[in-house]
Design brief:
Length: about 290
């Protein structure tokens, strides 16, 4: 049995050997499909956007073949493998491979014959090496920037959760010892809501309407959901999202704190597969 690479193993500029299959190759077939160091493999059959996705085989396995779902490009002395890889990545992203691919049953096929007829610019080896050097530096910078962006996004998510946690705990603003008890605040909110329902509707400014809506809708939003709701989604249903007024946000968090102090609010974190916290979800508890 011989390990072999297929489309699922060939990503852009990366060979993934975490899931390698094996099958029997005759001696003749193994000689034909045996991979060598610096062979370039391209996805022959793929989605239209990814057809021709290339990577260099760098002896990731001590012995391996490839199947006809891949195309092998083997360089000669006049072509630096990394230069050919850069060119093929350009062809994939620029749509050059897409223009020669044929689609059958929703799969785009590059075709070894059509691939062999593609133009291949061939500067001197010195120029190829300089192109590879410059682009490799740029690729490394791009990878660092992407990693920094990913770290920034994760930090933003964590910071958002810290703000929410501080808001639930009443730590966003200094606490006044003379503040009314949570149960009293909730009762006053209910009374004000009932009183407003009795009064005839009058024209109000947009800002006052929105603030009143936040106060009157939060309990209703959680009660209507009847189950867990992501905190951000609950806020959105209350009219508080990006760009919301400070008064709206403070009013919302005041009611959240009141619900929490009254034992009416359950808060539970949601994490990803690595255990990193993504967000909090809320649920209204029965009295």
């Amino acid at each position: 049995m011989v390990p072999y690479l297929r489309v699922a193993n060939v990503f852009e500029d990366r060979i993934d050997i975490s899931d390698v299959k094996e099958m029997h190759f005759s001696a003749e077939d193994e000689e034909t499909f045996k991979l060598g160091h610096n062979d370039i493999l391209l996805n022959e059959g793929q989605s239209l956007e990814l057809v021709g996705r290339p990577a260099i085989y760098r002896n990731e396995l001590p012995r391996a073949c490839f199947t006809n779902t891949l195309i092998r490009f083997r360089t000669e002395a006049s072509v630096i493998p990394d230069f050919a890889l850069i060119l093929f990545r350009h062809y994939m992203h620029s749509g050059r491979f897409r223009r020669i691919a044929k689609i059958t049953t929703n799969i785009a096929h590059l075709g070894a014959g059509r691939f062999a007829e593609l133009e291949f610019p061939l500067p001197s080896n010195v120029e190829q090496a300089e192109i590879v050097r410059r682009l490799s530096d740029q690729f490394a910078q791009i990878a660092e920037q992407e990693a920094a962006i990913e770290r920034g996004l994760m930090q933003s998510i964590a910071q958002r959760q810290n703000i929410l946690r501080a808001a639930f705990a009443g730590q966003l603003v200094p606490q006044d010892p003379n503040d009314e008890h949570a149960s009293v605040l909730l009762e006053r909110i209910r009374a004000e809501r009932a009183e407003r329902a009795k009064q005839p509707k009058t024209r109000k400014t947009k800002q006052k309407k929105e603030i009143a809506a936040v106060v009157s809708q939060l309990i209703d939003v959680l009660a209507e959901a009847g189950d867990w709701v992501p905190a951000q989604e609950a806020f959105r249903r209350c009219g508080v999202s990006d760009g919301a007024l400070t008064d709206q946000i403070e009013t919302l968090f005041a009611e959240l704190r009141a619900l929490d102090k009254a034992g009416r609010l359950a808060v539970e974190p949601v994490a990803d597969e690595q255990g990193r916290k993504l967000y909090d979800k809320l649920k209204l508890l029965e009295v």
